[in-house]
Amino acid sequence: MNTWGNKIRLSIFGESHGEAIGIVIDGLEAGTKLNLENINKFIERRKAGKSSFTTSRKEKDEYKILSGYKDGYTTGAPLCVIFENTNTISKDYENLKDLLRPNHADYPAGIKFKGFNDVRGGGHFSGRMTLPLTFAGAIAIDILGEKGIKIFSHIKRILDIKDKSFLDFKEKDLEKFENLKESSLPFIENDLEDKTKELLEKIKLSGNSVGGEIECSCFNLPIGLGNPFFDSLESKISHLAFSVPAIKGISFGIGFDFANILGSEANDLYYLDNNEIKTRTNNNGGILGGLSTGMPLVFSVVVKPTSSISLEQKTVNIKEMKEDILKINGRHDTCIVPRVLPVIEAIMALAILDEIL
C-alpha cells in the first residue's frame, strides 16, 4: 500500500513521467495555518539543477492544493496536493522496456506488476516521489517549530570525506546548525564543501556516481515519545526512512560502533544540570526502550550511489532472454545526497508529529 501513519495519514500517488504526483494528508487539525513561504523554501532545497552534479531535469515543482485548504488554513478535510510533471523526456527510456537497469526496481517490479509498471524515470519507484513527502514534512516542521522543536541535517560522509557529528557537540549550537540549511553542500565543517565539489565534478566527468551518509538531529523533544517494541520511535523513523528510494541503512546514536566498545563506554551516564536530568554522552541518540529521553535525537542513513550512470553495464534482455549491454540515456544526479537532506528532515518531522498529536 502507499499509505503511512496513525494520527497523521499520508497517501502518495503518481509516477515520475505521469501527469502529476501528489499526496493526501489526513489528520491535520482544522485551523492549522500553512506558511506557504516556508513550504516553498523547504521544497527549494530538494530541487534539481542547483549545481552541476545534479540532474538537468528542471521541474518547476509548483504545487496545487486541491482540497482541505481555504483562506490560508486547513479545513479539517483531507489535504490533497499535486505537482504536475512538465519536463519529462520519456523517449530516453524507450530502450529500457526489455533491458533491466542494474540497481533499479525494474526486475522485481516487472514480476510483481506483471509488466504493466511504468519504467519511465523510475515510475512510481522514482526519487521524484519524495517531493510530495517533502511538502508534508514542511508542514510538520512548522508545527513542531511552534513547539520549540528543531530539526537539522548535514552530509556526514561521501567516500573518504568525513564531517563532524552532532554527537560531538556537548552544548546545543542551534545557530551554527541553522546555517546548514543555506548551503547546497551542508557540512558542519565548512572547509569540506570545496573539496567535495571537486570530488563530485571528477566523478561526474567519469560517468559514474557516488552515495554517502546523512546525519539528522532533532532538538528539544519532550521525554517519553514513542512506544516499546513494534511502535518504538526508532521503528517509526526507520519505516519512513526506508520509504525514501536509495536509503539502504540506518543507525541511531553511535549505531554500529556499539560493536566496538564495552558497556562501561557505551552507557550514557546521568547527571543533574540545574535540576534537569541529562546524560554526559548521547551514544544512544536520544532514544532508550523505544522512547525519547529528552537528549537530542540523532540518527544517520546511508544513501546508495545513483543507480543510473552513463557507463556501459552488463545486463539481461528479458525479451530475448540473453545477456546484453546497457547504455543509459537521460538526466541523472552524480550524487543525490544533497537533495535527500530535506527529505530526511521531513520524515523525521512526520514521525515526531505522528507521536505528538
Q: What is the 3D form?
A: globular
Widest sheet: strand ordering: 1-2-3-7-4
Total number of domains: 1
Strand content range: 15-25%
CATH architecture: 4-Layer Sandwich
Q: Note the quaternary state here.
A: single chain
Please describe the biggest sheet, giving its number of strands, its sense, and whether it closes into a barrel: 5 strands, antiparallel
Would you give the CATH topology?
Chorismate synthase, AroC fold
CATH class: Alpha Beta
Catalytic activity: 5-O-(1-carboxyvinyl)-3-phosphoshikimate = chorismate + phosphate
Cofactor: FMNH2
Subunit structure: Homotetramer.
Function: This reaction introduces a second double bond into the aromatic ring system.
Mind explaining what this structure looks like?
The protein is an alpha+beta fold. It has one domain (3-356): Chorismate synthase AroC (Chorismate synthase, AroC fold, 4-Layer Sandwich). It is 24% helix and 24% strand. The protein has eight helices and 18 strands. The strands form six sheets. A five-stranded antiparallel β-sheet has the order 1-2-3-7-4, covered by helices on one side. Strands 9-8-10-16-11 form a five-stranded antiparallel β-sheet. The protein has a two-stranded antiparallel ribbon with strand order 5-6. Helix 1 (36-46) packs across helix 3 (130-145), helix 1 crosses helix 8 and helix 3 crosses helix 8 (337-356). The model has no long low-confidence stretch (mean pLDDT 93).
Relevant terms:
five-stranded antiparallel beta sheet, amino-acid biosynthesis, alpha+beta, 357 residues, Chorismate synthase, AroC fold
